[in-house]
């Protein structure tokens, strides 16, 4: 535990217009204050630098000059079902009520990170979105946000009864579905290490390393364990053909997964791509390969061709989604 004062005990006047928002992934935790003027005091902390989420929250508050915090909302990369939270891709675990009490908060709201991003969808502007391919949005039809980071997040937004409702999902853990013989070979390789191969196992940041190792084996090359950054670096070099193929395969696999979510949800309101990996890939993300695979659904090719896909370019849409929610409420 940090020796700093609990969040609510700092000696300033309370400003109830502000509340702390946090987007906690497997690698980084992003923090800001949400208030009447939008988001402010944005910081990014490495999860590995802090023993627990309470330590990270204290460290954030200690780093800023702002009113004391009485309310907080956390978007976290794990299922949220009850009081006990245990992250899927990091060691942090906590009780929501104990965390609230430890930090002297009046209210603490915790939700899945992609559910928080879904809350931001109606407020996103064209400046926050990069179109990938064609299609026309049906404004009141379901929308889906998905994307690879340390894991593979998914959430939906459905319009009913005159309002939008967010539907959290763990769709990234559905079984991976190969679309050609090479991907079938990648699946066979992955089965030697994991009895269940989810889409997340391959379509994620760590998945880039696994795809590359599998392609090395498939192509009869020496199997190397390269991190995502090194794969991207080598892809731009003359000797980096296998790394370039890894990134192309990854883009296609994401297209297949996005299409599966689109037909499952009837997401004619559009597919939104979030998560840190696609943004970091930059031009190495093969948009044409993604969209071609997205539409490659046999008899449903025309259905998918009509659905627009975008990459969210907003720096932290989960925080923006949390900021749309009223402070002082501990219910979803």
UniProtKB/TrEMBL annotation:
Record's protein name: Glucokinase
Family per record: Belongs to the bacterial glucokinase family.
Highest taxon of source: Bacteria
UniProt binding sites for ATP: 22-27
Assigned keywords, A-Z: ATP-binding, Cytoplasm, Glycolysis, Kinase, Nucleotide-binding, Transferase
Keyword Cell inner membrane part of the UniProt annotation: no
Catalysed reactions listed for this entry: D-glucose + ATP = D-glucose 6-phosphate + ADP + H(+)
HAMAP family associated with the record: Glucokinase (MF_00524)
GO molecular function terms listed in the Swiss-Prot or TrEMBL record: ATP binding; D-glucose binding; glucokinase activity
One of the GO BP terms on file: glycolytic process
Chief localisation class: cytoplasm
Protein location: Cytoplasm
Enzyme Commission code(s) on record: 2.7.1.2
Gene name tied to this protein: glk
């Amino acid at each position: 535990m940090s020796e700093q004062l609990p969040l609510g005990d700092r000696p300033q006047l309370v400003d109830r217009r502000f509340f702390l928002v946090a987007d906690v992934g497997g690698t980084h935790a992003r923090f800001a204050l949400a208030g009447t003027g939008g988001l402010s005091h944005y910081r990014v902390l490495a999860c590995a630098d802090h023993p627990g989420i309470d330590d990270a929250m204290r460290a954030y508050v200690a780093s800023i000059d702002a009113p004391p915090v009485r309310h907080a909302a956390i978007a976290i990369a794990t299922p949220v079902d009850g009081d006990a939270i245990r992250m899927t891709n990091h060691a942090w675990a906590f009780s929501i009520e104990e965390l609230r009490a430890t930090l002297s908060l009046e209210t603490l709201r915790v939700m899945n990170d992609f559910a928080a991003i879904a809350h931001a969808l109606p407020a996103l502007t064209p400046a926050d979105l990069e179109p990938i391919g064609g299609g026309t949005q049906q404004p009141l039809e379901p929308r889906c946000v998905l994307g690879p980071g340390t894991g593979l997040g998914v959430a939906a937004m459905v319009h009913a009864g005159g309002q939008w409702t967010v539907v959290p999902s763990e769709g990234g853990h559905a079984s991976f579905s190969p679309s050609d013989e090479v991907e079938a070979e990648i699946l066979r390789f992955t089965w030697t290490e994991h009895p269940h191969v989810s889409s997340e196992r391959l379509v994620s940041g760590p998945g880039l390393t696994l795809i590359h190792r599998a392609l090395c084996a498939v192509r009869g090359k020496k199997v190397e364990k390269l991190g995502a950054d090194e794969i991207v670096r080598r892809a731009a070099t003359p000797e980096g053909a296998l790394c370039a193929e890894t990134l192309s395969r990854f883009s296609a696999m994401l297209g297949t997964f996005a299409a599966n979510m689109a037909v499952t949800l009837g997401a004619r309101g559009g597919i939104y791509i979030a998560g840190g990996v696609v943004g970091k890939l930059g031009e190495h993300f093969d948009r044409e390969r993604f969209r071609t695979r997205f539409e490659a659904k046999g008899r449903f090719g025309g259905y998918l061709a009509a659905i627009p896909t975008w990459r969210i370019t907003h720096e932290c849409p989960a925080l923006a989604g949390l900021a749309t929610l009223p402070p002082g409420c501990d219910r979803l």
